[in-house]
Amino acid sequence: MRARAAAVAAVSTAAVLALLLLFGGRGARSADAPRIEFRGAARSVGGSCLVVTAGGVRFAVDCGSLGEEGGGELPDLPDSLAFVILTHAHTDHCGLLPRLFEAGFDGPVYCTRATARLAPIMLGMIRGISGASVARAAFDRTIAGFSEVPFGREAAHGGVRFRFRRAEHLLGAASVELWLPAGDDTVLLVVSGDIGGGNSLLVPPAEIPARADYVVMESTYGGVVRAEAGGSAPGREKFARAVGEALEAGGDVLIPAFTLGRTQEVMAVIDRYQRAGVIPPESEVYVDSPTAHKITAVYRTLREELSEEARNMYPGEPLRFPSLREVRSRTSMKVHDRRHVPAVFVTSSGDLSHANSPRHLMRMFEDRGNLLCIIGWQPPGSLGARLLAGESPVLVRYREGNENLEEWIDPELSVESSAAFSGHADAAGLLGWISAVRGTRKVFLVHGEERNAKALAKSIREALGTDVEIPERGAVRELVPVRGS
Ligand SMILES: [Zn+2]
């Protein structure tokens, strides 16, 4: 009898364990469990938006547009949003905020100090491109809505506690730790934001959250391993040598670069290698973008937010150096046409699709001594992608004065690319980041094309054994509390 009772006890223990596993292991499914809704950047990279409901409070993490120019529809967001947490100032994370305010939202937008200064510049740029699609009053309310929370300081709103950690991706870019009320429990959700490539000269390294119950993570380059990954200094030096050699041989150098972040990194790297003599110190460096100048001004006023390396490099005002010429687009072509010594032109529009990049190209393409340096991702079919692939002839659309022009050209100039300036971690960097977050019960991958998300999901499952999901747009998931969190 005794033996039989023991056997029954063993069976019922097993049944209870099985039930516990079935209903989520150590936690219990409950009406109090926080919910997350994937409203954007699901199985794609644009329009980041996550809606979180916890303890009766709803808020959004990011409200991004589809492209650099502010496109995309505002997701169908609940009227009851209490606040927004903004991870960083790129438009695919903040671009639709004015439309959210126009739709009636009137809460705070919590972000880091640098983001609060940079995001208004980007939103102003979008407004300039798209005209007055958002009423001035809504735009002004958006700008007034930014509420600064320094890195590392815990803040709270409606029972939700949160803290920004450095993500390195861009000045002010953050990952967010969120302590979500769940009845008597708390769920620790980490949203990675965009994770830097470990190669920034200006922005301090990432601070990876020590632990999480659940993680919503970007996967932009989840399937890409870069030769230069982790070797940023050699990548930068290779770039500098190519620039230096072209200038010494009498050529000009065109570096189309996104205005926010990339342009400032390029400026610092050129300055560094001019000091080292790798790039001729007498060569002038024209930065041709009004938006870039506004952004550079923010970098200059936030010296304390820069990396130790950058502060050592700039004991005074950052990003001021003798060869730098900050020109306005209005006058830049005159500058290009009149100067007599080889020079570097850093222009806006990283894929040469618009702004002044194609205008400069039209003055440079015929000379094989000139160099075009591609330093960012090129959308398929863009002029940058075609030039990089060596296509000839290529069609260039550009604006000269008030005229829209287009011309087929046979590019003779040299074209090189460098991954040294990528703002995103590659597959190894992303796996390294998530490996450092302890206790993660489940990872949701967003902000990546499906093949990149799938590749990262596979490597996370294999390396860590963690449950991974790639949610569809509109998917809603409960975050069941993990006991002891
Ligand atoms: Zn970004």
Secondary-structure topology with pairs:
Blueprint lengths: L1 H21 L12 E6 L8 E6 L2 E5 L19 E5 L5 H4 L2 H6 L6 E3 L1 H18 L5 H10 E3 L6 E3 L2 E7 L7 E9 L2 E7 L22 E5 L13 H17 L4 E4 L5 H14 L8 E5 L1 H12 L6 H6 L10 E4 L1 H10 L4 E5 L9 H6 L8 E4 L8 H6 L5 E7 L2 E7 L4 E4 L9 H9 L6 E5 L3 H15 L2 E3 L6 E3 L7
Parallel strand pairs: 3-4, 4-5, 5-6, 10-11, 11-20, 12-15, 12-16, 13-14, 13-15, 16-19, 20-21
Antiparallel strand pairs: 1-2, 1-22, 2-3, 7-8, 8-9, 9-10, 17-18
Helix pairs in contact: 4-8, 13-14
The chain binds zinc ion.
Walk me through this protein's architecture.
By secondary structure, this protein is an alpha/beta fold. The chain has 2 domains: 32-225 and 423-478, 4-Layer Sandwich (Metallo-beta-lactamase, Chain A), CATH 3.60.15; 232-417, Rossmann fold (3-Layer(aba) Sandwich). It has 14 helices and 22 strands. A 7-stranded mixed sheet has the order 6-5-4-3-2-1-22. A 7-stranded mixed sheet has the order 7-8-9-10-11-20-21, with helices on one face. A 6-stranded parallel sheet has the order 14-13-15-12-16-19. Strand 9 (174-182) and strand 10 form a beta hairpin. The radius of gyration is 25 Å and the shape is globular. Zinc ion is lined by residues 88, 90, 93, 169-170, 194.
